[in-house]
């Protein structure tokens, strides 16, 4: 497959290739080349035949003289323009997941849910032909869209990919032997519901990475990882990418950016029977909507100065700051 993908990405444009067309205003359209077909806009059209056989990265003019750049889309371009069932993991987060999730060639990776298949494609590229990506998706319609998207991108069904329609918790134990999965990647509403099944499937030292959209999900999954008892202390972060405008002397960040996509959290599977080492810091109280008591500053991880320290500070201020 790796060789086939390399072949797909190289050489002059062929029938069946996806080509990204960019007009002088930067507007992009993606077409799939077919003999005899035309790509029309409200100002002129392009003949596919004029592109077939042309080198990747060519320019051509349409029937009214508008110039277009024609280039093969990258995976990052493709996932942003392909048909969607569910919301996709953006390329900036997929890059983080592959690196921080330590997805390596030959790895056995479990993924849920599949959604539109955007993240699956990055995982497949990272594990390569010798690896396995076992993806689980509750919804048949989403699984079908994802498989069609991946097939269109890789040119055929990727040999490392298996998609199972079903709930991860119910389907995973039947799909893998306990302790045989290297990495688990969860992008779903309630990853905390899957921790027992994931913990059983992972090899000792295996890694779980979850992508969640909200802070409340992040908090809940972090607490569930701790409560499970078989995982290391979780690590959470988010990434923000700000594009830059590059024009003459106007070199500056763009005015608009994606301020938020999601949070990532990782943890490692401990060996069977091993409990996590004691944390040095006292863990904060977990979120309990029904709890009657008030939240305290300590619950939220704030450092609260001792009464003695506050008294000392108050004394040192005396009558308060004096104006010069
Ligand atoms: C946001 S989408 C995933 C998008 C995907 N990562 C992508 O990049 O295209 C979340 C998916 O998880 C599926 N899902 C939620 N809980 C699940 C579970 N327990 N087992 C399997 N699939 C689940 C949903 O049906 C939905 O399609």
UniProtKB/TrEMBL annotation:
Name the SUPFAM superfamilies for this protein: S-adenosyl-L-methionine-dependent methyltransferases
Task: Give GO terms: molecular function aspect only.
Answer: tRNA (adenine(58)-N1)-methyltransferase activity
Give the matching InterPro entries: SAM-dependent_MTases_sf (IPR029063), TRM61_C (IPR049470), tRNA_MeTrfase_Gcd14 (IPR014816)
Q: Which domain of life is it from?
A: Bacteria
- Give me the residues that bind S-adenosyl-L-methionine, please: 116-119, 137, 167, 187
A single GO CC term for this protein reads: tRNA (m1A) methyltransferase complex
EC numbers: 2.1.1.220
One GO term under biological process is: tRNA methylation
What spans are recorded as compositionally biased (Acidic residues)? 290-299
**What Pfam families does this protein map onto?**
GCD14, TrmI-like_N
Name the catalysed reactions: adenosine(58) in tRNA + S-adenosyl-L-methionine = N(1)-methyladenosine(58) in tRNA + S-adenosyl-L-homocysteine + H(+)
Q: Which residues form the tRNA (adenine(58)-N(1))-methyltransferase catalytic subunit TRM61 C-terminal domain?
A: 80-245
Q: Where is this region: Disordered?
A: 274-324
Q: Is Chloroplast set as a keyword in this record?
A: no
Q: Which residues form a coiled coil?
A: none
UniProt keyword terms in alphabetical order: Methyltransferase, S-adenosyl-L-methionine, Transferase, tRNA processing
Subunit-structure text: Homotetramer composed of a dimer of dimers.
Q: What does this protein do?
A: Catalyzes the S-adenosyl-L-methionine-dependent formation of N(1)-methyladenine at position 58 (m1A58) in tRNA.
Q: Give the family this protein belongs to, as stated in its UniProt record.
A: Belongs to the class I-like SAM-binding methyltransferase superfamily. TRM61 family.
Q: What is the protein name stated in its UniProt record? A: tRNA (adenine(58)-N(1))-methyltransferase TrmI
Native species: Nostocoides australiense Ben110
Q: What is the lineage of its organism?
A: Bacteria, Bacillati, Actinomycetota, Actinomycetes, Micrococcales
